């Protein structure tokens, strides 16, 4: 446990000592302000729509996080803990904590805006279950985006321009996946492979409240896909030596 906490702390220090975190989180605040600048808004609609934007921003965060890794320091730490997989697993835990912070901001900001407007931001009263469900979906959407962005790791895709274009393309297709499948059903033969982030707003279409079964199903799908991406990165980087 001590090694895990120390490595997560190390990754946070590496991330925060640069200015790479400023732009994504600034974009997050702007996005939240844009979504909640008009009132009233639907509780479920606004939170599930936020998941799409959080996914995109988290993908950006994942790209910047993996680009900050110093190969020399990475090798020294791996030699010290004697395990490539342990190092990359701990980096995934860092992404989990980063996703939690992103989700917390995305959940707290509308709550504060609602309070400052005398509870008139939403078209109904905000329930505790809304906060829990919203945070969970935002957290998992963020983690999904981070794990996707991490696939642009320099040792996996050396050409940085190509890496950014690939991730950007996957991001866009993932967000508009539902619309694409509606217009071109045949695309389901290939689009099953892209991140299922569009499932979140689609699953709650016309829902006034978060239903626990729907929330659980959407969460399970996001968790499964995120774990697959994280596992893929860990295995590829463990095999591709420096």
From TrEMBL:
This is ABC transporter permease protein. The chain crosses the membrane at residues 21-41, 47-68, 88-113, 125-151, 163-194, 214-236. Keywords: Membrane, Transmembrane, Transmembrane helix.
